[in-house]
Amino acid sequence: MAQERIPQATAKRLPLYYRFLQHLSESGRRRISSSELSELVKIDSATIRRDLSYLGALGKKGYGYSVERLLTFLGSKLDQDELTKVMLIGVGNLGKALLKYNFLKNNNSKIVVAYDTDYNKVGTKIGGTPIRHIDQLSTDDLADIQVAILTVPADSAQLVADQLIRTGVTGVLNFTPVRLSLPGTIRLHHIDLAAELQTLIYFLKNYPLDKQGGD
Q: What pLDDT is attached to residue 72?
């Protein structure tokens, strides 16, 4: 993403703002205040104003933000005009769900190819995405694919990650519970659904919602 460096916490929130602004634009909304946006995204308004001030996208006092202007501005920062091609490895239940979804509401990323070890799946398509055998990962020309999503069994996660290093991907979204070892040239994000669910249950039992509020 070609932009001035901003705090990572802010960078993680920008796609959330963008998605809600898209919904507002589609519904015909022309302007919104930070407090109104705060109610939608469940982030305090001071944080929203601070996040947007890092980008120079300041609203007008008493007017708020122009939805279209802010949407265009954030779109340029998030490279919405540039498609990021993604590969998916592991076409199990989660992998199938991701292929069917395929980020249809997010117009700057798309899963263009998937890999699996099951020959019954190889040669088929899900959501228009072709499925190839994992052995082809080392022979396919994947130079234009920047990101890989891992939804493979835990016992094969590191092995597949090692194969990914040779493909030239620069980002990996890991849905497995394994903490992968990858070189510093690859940005790695972990999404552990079981851990997130366990955390939610813990907070439900120990921090009543009327005291804690939403996250």
A: 84
